[in-house]
Amino acid sequence: FFAIFAFSTCGGYSGVFRLSVECKNRTESDLNIEVEFEYPFRLHQVWFDAPSCKGPEPERLFLVGDNSSSAEFFVTIGVFSFLYTMAAMSVYIFLLEKYHEGNKGAQADFVVTAIFTFMWLVSSAAWAKGLSDVKRATDPDEVINLITACDHEDNRCKEIHEPVVSGLNTSVVGTVTINNVIMHIF
Question: What is the DSSP secondary structure assignment for residue 45, as one 8-state letter?
Answer without folding.
Answer: G
